[in-house]
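Shipment paperwork, digital attachment
Item: protein structure file
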Amino acid sequence: MRDDLDISAFGTRQPSSILARVLRRTRAQPDTWLGRRIAFFLRKMAIGRLQGPVDIQSFGTNFRLYPFSNVCEKRILFTPQYFDQAERNLIVSRIRPGFVFLDIGANIGGYALGIAAAAGPGARIVAIEPQPQIFERLIYNIAQNPFGTVKAVASAIADHDGELTLFLNDENRGQASVKIVSSEPTAAGMVKVAARSLMTLIREERLTHIDAAKLDVEGAEDLILEPFLRDAPKSLWPKLMVVENIEGRWHKDVRTLLLDHGYKKLMVTRRNVAFEFSDEVKD
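Attachment content:
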């Protein structure tokens, strides 16, 4: 299959001359209604002709991308200018010596590797991804870059340690969730994966602070954050938090939860909401 993992040397899957021309056009489109329509039309036409993954650079980072059944990889390949630019710029603005970034729901590394490219050798970046097929792609992409600051963890982050069921989406492999996000059965089905709480992850990684965290876990953000904010010392709370804004899937409103714990809302975009915590009191 054209989205089966290909571990050949990076560069052997360079875009054809035709695809390279398409990519130049899609990547040059402005962030307007018309610009997006043109880019998405060209993307659809190009994907239909692709026979396998593509090696490309985005955000100063090498990626091997499979843009067939993963929206994240489509965006990074064809339209990186639309890929959470404001959110990524906000995280980069917080980079300082000893910078620590958690990418929870890392997918194939779009955030983790892009931040690593900007943060330099003194950073520490932990990319957490539970979906086995996507995790293999993440590992491959990390290995194609010289940063040495990104660690991949194969796990779901939840409200407990152990094992849980991950519900897969065969039309968008990056949309796996510990919550059922569709009532329709899919061929991709379900898979059992390791799980740990956010506090357990922090202890295992021996983190003493977190400068920024991104949570994109398809509606399970409340499952992660409610017990963490209840039990963790404030010194371990991420100073900056970027959370996927999908309130319809939350049992407890994450925005209200963060505001009630002293976070301040900084930004709302098409897909995410960003909060900052500035309380320096240690408990």
